[in-house]
Known about the structure:
Layout: H1 11-17, H2 27-34, H3 38-54
Amino acid sequence: MTGTGSGAFDALDRLRASGHPVDLLDERQQRVFAQLNEAEVDLLNSIKQRLDEVAGEVEGQELKLI
């Protein structure tokens, strides 16, 4: 699932760019994330950024899906 190239909002591309491992999700889960609007993606990215800021170096080895 890649961007459309038309400049339209692509939730999966925006999530990928922020470091969310959406390509590890199954197709059904990816469809759910692909349907998110910009505000929902911005919220997820904000939460991820805040979690990343408080994560220790050891946590960097864990898989995070959000």
